[in-house]
Design goal:
The two termini are 34 Å apart. This protein has 1 helix and 24 strands. The radius of gyration is 19 Å and the shape is globular. The strands form 6 sheets. A 4-stranded antiparallel beta sheet has the order 1-24-23-22, with no helix packed on it. By secondary structure, it is mainly beta. Helix content is 5%, strand content 51%.
């Protein structure tokens, strides 16, 4: 059954026409991971578990090696950057110069929490997928209170993204969902197998499979090859119609058309 599912999606992936992004610029950068850009255009990367922010000639760094590996970086608000350290069930908030403004130990919550997904929500709140209850909720970190929004889910989360007013994720069967701050859940559809993925609109996403990049349309259930002039690449990010490709040598930025 899994083989049939994979062949079906591979057929869909090669059934779409190719999209050709427009090359903008390229620059050198050595890092273990490219995190992305914030709303002001600053660049974030991770090397040896140290977060680096670069804006023009200015550079800032943050490290907290006692908390282990950085699991997730949320750049939605450049004045309130969120770092998630899953191994220690901890969250760090940073200002725009990467100074620590809050250290949150989720073990101190009024309700038991073992987080496997964290994102910044509106107000003094964080989105959390609580692995103990397998529910999504909002955590008000100034009060250390967790409010559950959903019933338990049966399938594990394999990927997630969040905004101030929503949390969206993909489960181990390729099903995509979105939850709002009131707990309303919408099922977006089923997705092809991927190595990396990112939403670019409510109905479109980009996904990496091997060394190829595709755009997937939920409405048409069709994948379109995105033609980039890179034979291999580590990962990609997308923001405001700018596609950034990270390789061993640096970053290449493309302008990509989004309907």
């Amino acid at each position: 059954m899994k083989k049939v599912y994979l062949l079906f999606w591979l057929f869909c992936a090669w059934n779409g026409l190719a999209q050709k992004p427009v090359l903008m610029n390229t620059f050198d950068m050595k890092a273990d991971a490219f995190v992305g850009y914030d709303a002001l255009g600053a660049i974030y990367s991770i090397t040896n578990n140290v977060l680096t922010k670069q804006f023009g000639e200015q550079k800032w760094q943050y490290k907290n090696l006692q908390l282990g590996k950085i699991t997730k970086v949320d750049l939605q608000n450049p004045l309130k950057i969120v770092l998630f350290y899953q191994d220690f069930n901890a969250v760090i908030l940073l200002d725009n110069q990467l100074n620590e403004t809050a250290s949150i130990n989720l073990n101190d919550s009024t309700n038991p929490i073992i987080a496997i997904a964290i994102g910044l929500a509106a107000g003094n709140r964080l989105w959390i997928y609580n692995n103990l209850s397998q529910k999504i909720g909002l955590y008000e970190y100034t009060k250390r209170e967790f409010k559950t929004l959903t019933t338990p889910f049966t399938n594990n989360v394999t990927y997630y993204e969040s905004g101030f007013n929503y949390f969206q994720w993909i489960d181990e069967e390729g099903n995509s969902f979105r939850c709002d701050v009131y707990g309303k859940i919408d099922q977006m559809g089923n997705l092809p197998p991927f190595d990396q993925i990112q939403w670019i609109s409510d109905t479109l996403l980009l996904f990496k499979k091997g060394n190829e990049l595709y755009e997937y349309d939920f409405k048409d259930k069709k994948s379109t090859l995105v033609e980039i002039d890179k034979k291999t690449f580590k990962n990609f990010t997308y923001k405001d119609q700018i596609l950034s490709i990270f390789t061993d040598n640096g970053i290449t930025n493309y302008k990509i058309a989004v309907p």
